[in-house]
Amino acid sequence: MLSRVAERIYWMSRYLERVENTARLIEVYTNLLLDLPSGVDIGWYNLVTLNDAEEWFDARYKVRDERNVIKFLLTDPDYPASIVNSLKMVKENVRTSRDVIPAESWEYVNGLSLYVQDNANDGIKRGTRHEFITEIIQCCQRFHGLFVSTMSEGQPKCFLRLGSNIERADMTTRLLDAGASLVVENEGNLLPNAEQIIWGNVLHSASAYLPFTKSQRKSVKGIRVARYLLEDHNFPRALGYCLETMGNVAEQLPRSEALLTLIQQLDETKFDGILGDDAVIDASFRDYLNDLQLKIAGLHGMTAETWFSLD
């Protein structure tokens, strides 16, 4: 398999996963706006910070309000990771990879791109945002279902799965950080049930509420949610599951020893005792999540070094 073809498939799956997870991040804050008491500071600019996009945002917007943040994440033409730009990259990579991925992919990505372009204002407006975001998430899931159910096992599917799980692992830490940022910034000002509302919405945004309650059989608390979304090896959006899947995929690819070593090191050290029974969600937990994101970025770097510089 040519390295440039592998790279296109890898990035197609990463950008598709990024579209879905950006929508999920927006959903977290939109739902919290409705569920939390009016005195709790939502801090929409946190969504920009979580994506390390402060420089991009501040260059274009002076006001850090809800409308500008949502517009930035959905449709900004200059921010590379906006949903509109991510879909452009999905579309381009699908166009140039149609000989190794299902033919229906082109129809799927065009349909989703047109939907976002035609209905972007529904996403910016609070009253119609839920339906808009839900449609994006469901379209992305149908896209993933197409790959899972119609692609033969082999190297193309390996690179697709590798890309989607690296992106998903990264974005799961950012979903957790979305909840942690609200808890930390409103420390001492939250009502007794507010934290349960925050972490319940984090679970819902990851489609993890029912799996969490079945697995844990305990009340929703921050540290329990964090441990579940980081440690669990059965839920597909949990970091532990993503790392295990990456390892299984890498074993099927040539020259994967260095990547497998990094995956194993991250899997063995990712918790570092910070998620113990007496742990709390505080600023150190956010630092810990940031460190995880850097290590996940290292997995991408090793992937690119191993397979995408060969042609």
Give the end-to-end Cα distance, rounded to a whole number of Å. 10 Å
Number of beta strands: 0
What is the average per-residue confidence, as pLDDT, rounded to a whole number?
89
Sheet/helix structural class: mainly alpha
- Given the C-alpha coordinates, what overall shape results? globular
- Low-confidence runs (pLDDT<50, min 5 residues)? none
Largest sheet: none
What's the alpha carbon Rg, rounded to whole Å?
Answer: 19 Å
Secondary-structure element string: HHHHHHHHHHHHHH
- Give the total of domains: 1
Features:
14 helices; 72% helix
Q: What report would you give on this structure?
A:
- The protein is mainly α.
- Helices cover about 70% and strands about 0% of the residues.
- The chain has one domain.
- Helix 8 (about 155-185) packs antiparallel against helix 12 (about 240-250).
Summarize it.
With 311 residues, the chain is an all-alpha fold. It has helices at residues 3-35, 45-50, 54-58, 66-75, 83-95, 104-124, 126-150, 155-185, 194-205, 209-216, 222-231, 239-250, 257-269, 283-307.
